């Protein structure tokens, strides 16, 4: 009986949640996806973010987002909007070379659709829906004709456009467009730039930079409130990767191991992409024991857990530096912070915070994968996701319209119910015994209506 009641209560609370916010369900759902480049997950614990913490209080926080290897900017931003590992979406580095077409890709030479067309980003899918458009205040790929489509509203990439201008223009597009903008992106270069310059262990400089970012978040929220977008807009604030401290005492100089004429270097550090000009095995042999702080892999031997193998743009040999080590040519690095390392390192992980009608309020969750964001965004926008490597159920606990009972909670409920049931039964037996003591024929009576009290429950 008790369990039945519990079930009924659970059912009702579920129905109530389902019915809540009738008005917000009748409008088309809208989503703004924001990235602050290089926002390492534990900055949130180690620095103060009054505006961001207010945002989180009214929404959800995922403390660690496990990103994809290599933990670089373009690859991870494209994984967020496609749900694919790098080998499957084709943006396998910030610097690439395709041996068949002899094309080069870099962050300043990225507009050839060839590089992007192996996947379909969510802003393209969103625009195939009737009466919907997408807008972008920058995000890698949003100024490229991917599958012959750009967002209806976008900016060409330029780091000299201020955050305020990006916010002003994206919020104008979100308020005034017809057909309405239902998916929008906003990208900002910090704290990545300062993380590289000072290193994440420079507390004083990082505190200053991170306070500036929190003020920018304050500006964004204020703007959304002023324009009446705040209540019905879903906002995700996340990032592509973290940052770790580097040092000139941790350099790996390739020139000490192999002659430059023997190979081309497609990408340098911390994951070097090596295209041999002589026998591959020979190059591999020269590099294999170059440094104890660097793993050297032939393409076929790259560990499966990286999902970084099955693409022509991944070069025949890759070198992966240990955390905090930098691969250099004849001493040539001034970076005090870097990223790109093994994606299982916590220092490489970003966080995710989200708020709006689709999200719970005041919910904390320890971890999801960066590829899980895409199916969640498709769900919120009512889009059919393309095949991807994410898992929708990982994000169910963040969403108001999903059932979410995790295993510990479920066990807790069952144990709780059993305890309550046992206690009640004991109480009833004790009370019956007490009541029955004065009666001379208690035994007989007890036998008669033995089961009644339990049925009444
Ligand atoms: C749903 O929203 C509409 C308009 O916002 C309102 O008129 C209506 O009463 C609401 N229905 C319920 C059941 O809350
Ligand atoms: C799209 O918008 C037009 C005009 O606003 C409207 O007539 C049409 O029903 C809309 N289509 C859908 C699928 O909402
Ligand atoms: C972006 O740049 C291209 C080429 O420079 C130009 O033709 C185009 O109009 C620009 N688009 C926007 C939205 O500024
Ligand atoms: C932002 O909008 C203003 C006003 O429409 C426009 O003049 C400006 O060029 C836009 N900025 C960018 C970077 O597109
Ligand atoms: C490879 O490097 C060696 C020196 O280690 C040099 O003698 C040789 O000419 C180089 N081969 C090519 C093809 O550049
Ligand atoms: C490369 O060198 C290895 C041994 O040094 C040899 O067994 C192999 O046949 C060579 N491969 C080519 C393509 O020359
Ligand atoms: C390495 O640096 C030294 C001094 O800066 C220079 O003389 C030398 O030519 C460099 N070697 C290469 C291979 O660039
Ligand atoms: C990732 O997803 C793509 C598209 O469905 C698929 O082709 C690929 O095999 C997946 N990768 C893994 C490792 O499952
Ligand atoms: Zn980045």
TrEMBL record:
Enzyme Commission number(s) of this protein: 3.6.1.29
SUPFAM superfamilies on file: Alkaline phosphatase-like
Co-factor requirement: Zn(2+)
GO cellular component term of the entry, any: plasma membrane
Membrane-spanning parts: 410-430
Subcellular location(s) per record: Cell membrane
Chief site of localization: membrane
Signal peptide: 1-21
Enzyme class (EC, first level): hydrolase
Family: Belongs to the nucleotide pyrophosphatase/phosphodiesterase family.
Name of this chain's protein: Bis(5'-adenosyl)-triphosphatase ENPP4
Species this chain originates from: Marmota marmota marmota (Alpine marmot)
Gene for this chain: ENPP4
């Amino acid at each position: 009986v008790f369990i039945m009641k519990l079930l009924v209560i659970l059912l009702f609370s579920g129905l109530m949640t389902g019915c809540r916010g009738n008005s917000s369900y009748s409008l088309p759902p809208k989503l703004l996806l924001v990235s602050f480049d290089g926002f390492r997950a534990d900055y949130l614990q180690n620095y103060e973010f009054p505006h961001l913490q207010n945002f989180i209080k009214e929404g959800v926080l995922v403390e660690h987002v496990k990103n994809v290897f290599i933990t670089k900017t373009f690859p991870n931003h494209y994984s967020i909007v496609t749900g694919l590992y790098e080998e499957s979406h084709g943006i396998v580095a910030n610097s690439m070379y395709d041996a068949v077409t002899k094309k080069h890709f870099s962050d300043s030479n990225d507009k050839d659709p060839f590089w992007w067309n192996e996947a379909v980003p969510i802003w393209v899918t969103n625009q195939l829906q009737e009466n919907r458009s997408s807008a972008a205040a920058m995000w890698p790929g949003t100024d490229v004709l991917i599958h012959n489509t750009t967002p209806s509203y976008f900016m060409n990439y330029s780091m000299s456009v201020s955050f305020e201008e990006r916010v002003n223009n994206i919020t104008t597009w979100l308020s005034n467009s017809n057909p309405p903008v239902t998916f929008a992106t906003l990208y900002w270069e910090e704290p990545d730039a300062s993380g590289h310059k000072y290193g994440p262990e420079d507390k004083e400089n990082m505190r200053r930079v991170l306070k500036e970012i929190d003020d920018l978040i304050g500006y964004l929220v204020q703007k959304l409130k002023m324009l009446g977008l705040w209540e019905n807009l879903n906002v995700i604030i996340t990032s592509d990767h973290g940052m770790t401290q580097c040092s000139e005492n941790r350099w790996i100089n390739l020139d000490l191991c192999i002659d430059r004429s023997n190979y081309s270097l497609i990408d340098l550090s911390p994951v070097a992409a090596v295209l041999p000009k002589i026998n591959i095995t020979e190059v591999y042999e020269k590099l294999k024991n170059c440094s104890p702080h660097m793993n050297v892999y032939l393409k076929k031997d790259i560990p499966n857990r990286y999902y970084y193998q099955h693409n022509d743009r991944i070069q025949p040999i890759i070198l992966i530096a240990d955390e905090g080590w930098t691969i250099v040519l004849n001493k040539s690095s001034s970076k005090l912070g870097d990223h790109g390392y093994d994606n299982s390192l916590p220092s490489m992980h970003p966080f995710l915070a989200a708020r709006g009608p689709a999200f719970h309020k005041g919910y904390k969750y320890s971890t999801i994968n960066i590829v899980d964001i895409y199916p969640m965004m498709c769900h919120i926008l009512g889009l059919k996701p393309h095949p991807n490597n994410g898992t929708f159920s990982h994000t169910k606990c963040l969403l108001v319209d999903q059932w979410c009972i995790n295993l510990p909670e479920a066990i807790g409920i069952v144990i709780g119910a059993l305890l309550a049931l046992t206690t009640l039964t004991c109480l009833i037996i004790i009370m019956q015994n007490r009541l029955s003591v004065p009666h001379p024929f208690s035994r007989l009576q007890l036998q008669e209506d033995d089961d009644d009290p339990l049925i009444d429950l």
